[in-house]
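FIELD: query
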Amino acid sequence: MKKIFTLMALAGLTMNVSAQTESYKSIVFDGDTPALAPEFAAVVDENNVATNVGTTGRSVVTFGTPNMSVEAVGSATPTDVEPGEEINAELHLFEPAAITMGDITWKNGNNKLDINDAEQTKLYFVMGQGNAYEEILAEEIYTDDEPTGRYRPYYTYTDYLNGDTGLPKYGLYYKFTPTLAGTLKVQVWVNKGNRNTVVVKGSTGVAMTYGEDYWAEGYVNGKRANYDTPAIDPETGEPKLDNQGNPIYEQYQIFFNREQIDSIHNDYCYGNYYKLLRENEEEPGKHSEDKVAEEKAKGDQMAIDRRFVISTGNQAFWGWITIPVEAGESYYVFQLSSQLGFGGYDFTFDGSEGISELSSPVARRETTFNLAGQRVGDDVSGIVVRNGKKVIRR
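FIELD: result
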């Protein structure tokens, strides 16, 4: 059972503990039905379309716990773009004179089994909208090298893989800002494991290095293993058999820890290089030294590129990104060419330091929390915690 932020911490009481954990869940339950947490539910209509979209074409949802502030930013996909001044004749690019945006949605989806949690058998996610891009331009569509007079959106991105720096302005991203140093563990769902999942430091705009500055653990779609006991046919009560008469075993998702995912990355990057080495051992001289060196160089480049990749392959990943964080620094978490499902976070910090910091700032901001330690708005009724005290709102 994951540790939930306690009322004692909210009250700023003195405790002799070595660590404290604040937790937030993006999905709560209405009976047995998963529903958006209050912060997300407050900004969508009955069709899960965002109602808080401003002139920038973004939906911004703010929430957090006393020592962690979070912004979830979703952006719509343009449905039409009108050209303005031409800025690149070779690429047929124009400044946009007007952009028509589609709807932005926040909704629950892609819930996945977590076999390691006996209390809750599934992980639940908020799914937002938009790729993390810098700006939208208008690109004229050409056919057979002739202009058509029709235009489509053209996105510009920060090329983090080649060392560029910057922060996303649009798309779907999550910004985490802790008041204390500690360890942030973000629950995520990734559409495809070979997409680049990035953590960028807010003060520098530099993408952090996977395996050094942050890491992942969790599940990869399709990676399953057998239980020790055969599956039982519910109709006959007999063990299930395959076409050859062999027992069929019940299966479970394989949980990959940090070291195992690092090993997957390593095999992915250097698989061909290792293959050539093995074949040269079995048949000396089968591959030239130049060929072996070429595959080694390819592996080295892939090892650089994969620093932003949670897992490899074209399968979904669900699990956690762990980031050691500094006090006052901001961390942007997003994907470059896909959407990131967000299930919540656990923020662990030095307990005595966290509690001493809580009493004054939280009271001064008159922030209100529910009994799960989640920040709530002024319109929430029931039992809440305000300035460290339980209050019943009617």
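FIELD: remark
Helices lie at 7-10, 38-41, 258-282, 289-305, 351-365.
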